[in-house]
Fold each of these.
Amino acid sequence: MAKDKKEMISDLIGYLEYLKESGISFLPSLKKRKVQALEEIWRELIDCQRCKLHRSRSRIVFGEGNEDAKLMLIGEGPGYDEDLQGRPFVGKAGQLLTRILQSVQIERKEVYITNIVKCRPPGNRTPEPEEIKSCFPFLLKQIQLIQPRVICALGTVSAQTLLQTDTKITSLRGKSFDFSGIKVFPTYHPAFLLRNPDKKREVWEDIQKVAKALREGGE
Ligand code: SF4
């Protein structure tokens, strides 16, 4: 009888452990290949002019973090500080995100952080549908490579884009959704939280659910 998926995964893990014990480990080369593949996607975006956001950007903010992350955090787009530094979530909202993660014992170095659009919209306006459409395929490639177990969608644009819905973030947050087998937990964007500190409790509840989903998955 054909083996089920669980058995096949368990056999594969056993085989990899056997190879490791025998001193044959190709896991590092798999990791290296993943890093290289991410670099290739990044190279596709160098000098990208696929949408008009390229006109006002200083730098493309590709994303950063652990390429084997179990948790991926996806925001809307780079802000002022991110555009200058070329790194995601480095301003005040980023510092708040770091504290939110630490509140459930998750360090930034463990996760992968990126955005729906990789260039800063002028004046931090919301990215337009055409801009999202142009940039989204690159995010999909990042997700396919990293293969996180859980995605935390930060804010309306991220949640609505990933879930292909017009439903408001107020109705989406607090629940989990499926995205090609990955659990998606929408919550408020940290920048919104800075302006609306009364929403802290809801974000706290959401991040607890994210941490629980990671633990349940064998984290
Ligand atoms: S937002 Fe994305 S698609 Fe638009 S120019 Fe920047 S990298 Fe290219």
Amino acid sequence: MDETVRIKNTGLKGVTVADTKISFIDGERGILIYRGYRIEELAEKSSFPETAYLLLNGSLPDEEQLNDFNRKITGARGMPTFIFDTFKKWPRQSHPMDVLQASIPLLAMGDPDLPNDTREANVLQAVRLISRVPVLVAGWHRIRNGLEPLPQDGKSSHAGNFLWQLSGEKPDAEIARDLDICLILHADHTFNASTFACREVVSTRAHMYAGIAAGVGALSGSLHGGANAEVMKMLMELEAEEDIDGWVRRQLDGGKKIMGMGHAVYRTVDPRAKILKEISLRLGTKLGQEKWYHLSSRIEEAAVSEFERRGKPNIKPNVDFYSASVYHMMGIPNDLMTSVFAVSRVAGWCSHIIEEKFAEAQERPALYRPTSEYIGNYCGLMGCTYEPIERRK
Ligand SMILES: CC(C)(COP(=O)(O)OP(=O)(O)OC[C@H]1O[C@@H](n2cnc3c(N)ncnc32)[C@H](O)[C@@H]1OP(=O)(O)O)[C@@H](O)C(=O)NCCC(=O)NCCS
């Protein structure tokens, strides 16, 4: 029996390529679940380290386990010195996502557990990555601005320490908690493009860092994690625009996208967007910058009604729509927003890599190896005649 399945140019949409026990989406109802727990409840009651533990280990930690996990994260923040020395030689205008992607193999080079491919060693690597990705992001931001990277503030939360290492200012506790919630919301999302990239790479038995570097690359694109920076660009462009409805119409008539809208899986509002919208309003009110919230919700209203008019009622705000204004108000520059997504998503990537490598949701590990259909030049199975260069026209 021919078992070939022909699905071409669909971006694998709707194709189930593996089982997973890590997260679940109901796109029709707008539900996101990590390891059985609703995202709304985690956002309200959990912390990012606790959520990362849940994603990695499959169950919520008890107090001692969480303290131990937090100690390990704090303990791993100090990095081999050659990494920041290397950063100092790189062009300062380099995009933070390029720097992040390029620095993941540097972490691999400094990891003593690399040759050891046991599950325990992979969990240790995961903890180091969760701990160090924010340090890399903050460190590059300082170095590109001619400043020295800062030592951690071990007493702050994971989110609070990131803000401190980025800006050198102790963050307001409520703002640090809001960032902590953002990190919970972005931590995992089933088989999105970057997670799939991570899993595909480690299915070859490449190490965890090789998978994470691929994930960072996939996340950088504007249809994926890069969308938050694009949304902020749009907000800045539209700050003085009076005719938002007209702008939306012109954008769509010109075949352009409204960034931060639409989703490959959700057919309704992304549940994360609802929470981020609340944070955007809360932060705006606290900081006297409600204009970003009001502008975002005005664009949302205009875009949703225009999409409906065009027969696309399922296109609603996604996670990137309100995270843009939230990150902006937290003092995070536009070109660093996608890296903040990575600070969080690294927890999901590592969990998926472990699940993939150790076949925790499948019978056995498998190498991803889809097929393609050749539609190029063809002269038969003997191949085309190779003409010497002087005889070619
Ligand atoms: C995320 C995204 C790539 C999903 O695209 P998708 O899987 O093709 O989504 P759909 O199948 O629902 O799209 C249906 C149609 O709506 C269009 N569409 C979807 N989102 C759109 C948007 N934000 N702006 C304009 N048109 C959009 C698609 O181009 C497609 O048009 P077509 O039928 O004429 O080809 C898409 O919504 C998008 O590009 N959004 C903007 C970028 C973004 O915010 N990315 C972050 C995602 S978390």
